[in-house]
């Protein structure tokens, strides 16, 4: 996975509650087994008409938000089925961070396992983000600092801390998946195996 420490970007605001995984990536697109190619069908039924023409009123089809790397959604994002493809689709589209006031637990874990940072903030701070973005669309940006666990509204004296599992934080900062993390500990594991009395018992 790519290393993640800090990102500053325009946001893509999706002020909708209870966005479930079938809306994120519809079930009919789950045939592939690799993680690539899902981004083109992210929010497929909201982005496109039946004739595959883009829906002009959907946020991802607005050119003003094309460069946004931070998706900001209303509460209860990622509910529904446990499909890991939802995290794949968001990451494959180009998002590095998803911000909400509440995430479904399975989605949150899937995101962390796939290099997508889920940042949970208070409902009050989330409302402030949406309000500030509406008032200042062209210049509005957020800065997400994983090292210091802080999300900041750029140019404003407004920020909030967020929580993250220490192990997952270490993995994201170093670009590790679970296997990479174990390989990084190889020398320590081998040293333990050589010295541990529990692993050197002659039967």
Q: What descriptive keywords fit this protein?
A:
203 residues, alpha/beta, four-stranded parallel β-sheet, 8 strands
Protein topology:
Blueprint: E1 6-9, E2 11-14, H1 21-24, H2 44-47, E3 70-73, H3 85-93, E4 97-100, H4 105-113, E5 117-120, H5 123-135, E6 142-145, E7 150-153, E8 158-161, H6 166-174, H7 178-184, H8 186-195
Parallel strand pairs: 2-3, 3-4, 4-5
Antiparallel strand pairs: 1-6, 6-7, 7-8
Describe the structure.
The chain has helices at 21-24, 44-47, 85-93, 105-113, 123-135, 166-174, 178-184, 186-195, and strands at 6-9, 11-14, 70-73, 97-100, 117-120, 142-145, 150-153, 158-161. The protein contains 8 helices and 8 strands. A 4-stranded antiparallel sheet has the order 1-6-7-8, with no helix packed on it. The longest helix is centred in the middle third of the chain and has 13 residues, at 123-135. The protein has 203 residues and is an alpha/beta fold.
């Amino acid at each position: 996975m790519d290393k993640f420490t800090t990102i500053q970007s325009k946001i893509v605001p999706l002020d909708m509650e209870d966005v479930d995984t079938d809306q994120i990536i519809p079930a009919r697109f789950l045939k592939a087994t690799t993680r690539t190619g899902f981004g083109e069908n992210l929010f497929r039924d909201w982005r496109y008409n039946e004739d595959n023409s883009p829906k002009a009123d959907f946020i991802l089809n607005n050119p003003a938000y094309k460069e946004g790397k931070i998706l900001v959604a209303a509460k209860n994002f990622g509910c529904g089925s446990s499909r890991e493809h939802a995290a794949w689709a968001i990451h494959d589209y180009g998002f590095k961070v998803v911000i909400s006031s509440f995430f479904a637990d399975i989605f949150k874990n899937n995101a962390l396992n796939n290099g997508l940072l889920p940042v949970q903030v208070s409902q009050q701070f989330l409302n402030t983000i949406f309000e500030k973005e509406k008032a200042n669309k062209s210049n509005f940006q957020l800065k997400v600092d994983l090292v210091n666990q802080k999300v900041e509204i750029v140019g404003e004296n407004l920020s909030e801390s967020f929580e993250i599992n220490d192990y997952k934080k270490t993995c994201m900062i170093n670009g590790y998946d679970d296997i990479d993390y174990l390989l990084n500990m190889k020398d320590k594991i081998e040293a333990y195996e050589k010295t541990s009395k529990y692993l050197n018992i002659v039967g």
